[in-house]
Design a protein that fits this description.
By secondary structure, this protein is of the alpha+beta class. The chain has a single domain, classed as 2-Layer Sandwich (Ribosomal Protein S5, domain 2), CATH 3.30.230. About 45% of the residues lie in helices and about 15% in strands. The radius of gyration is 19 Å and the shape is globular.
């Protein structure tokens, strides 16, 4: 229907926003530059769990950004990409557990893929709890110094 406006053909941009919503992992929420990754590995704090390590550092943004780092020692490309997809999905559906204003890099451990989904959720919840505790402690220390 070339002569009919898009709105009349069924395309409604408001519907796109509703479908994507808070549950999506948008482009600005992903870490992409090697400079950001280097800063996190250089300056960031580490939370080490049974099959997951998370490095994080505060950023100057009102939202959090996330990235994954899976080395070749983890396995072949199929295993590495599966671990990345699982980590992104866990974060996408549970990003409310983490404080806003931090950059995080998730690094799966050797036996990450051996665990089931429930185990992944428990590990992720523990990581969120530890990061939230460290982040609030760090923020309160920063306020005390400035006063």
């Amino acid at each position: 229907m070339p002569g009919v406006p898009r709105e009349e053909r069924g395309f409604q941009p408001d519907n796109l926003k509703l479908r994507r919503g808070a549950e999506s992992l948008s482009r600005h929420e992903r870490l992409r530059s090697s400079k950001d990754f280097s800063r996190i590995f250089r300056e960031g704090e580490k939370v080490r769990l049974k099959s997951l390590t998370v490095r994080w550092v505060p950023n100057d943004l009102p939202w959090s950004r996330v990235g994954t780092s899976v080395g070749r020692r983890f396995g072949n490309a199929v295993r590495r990409n599966r671990a990345r997809r699982i980590l992104r999905e866990l974060y996408r559906t549970r990003k409310g557990w983490f404080p806003s204003g931090i950059d995080m890099v998730f690094m799966p451990g050797k036996y990450f893929l051996n665990a089931g989904w429930e185990q992944h959720e428990k590990i992720f919840a523990e990581a969120a709890r530890r990061i939230s505790g460290s982040f609030t402690a760090r923020a309160s220390k920063g306020r005390c110094r400035n006063e």
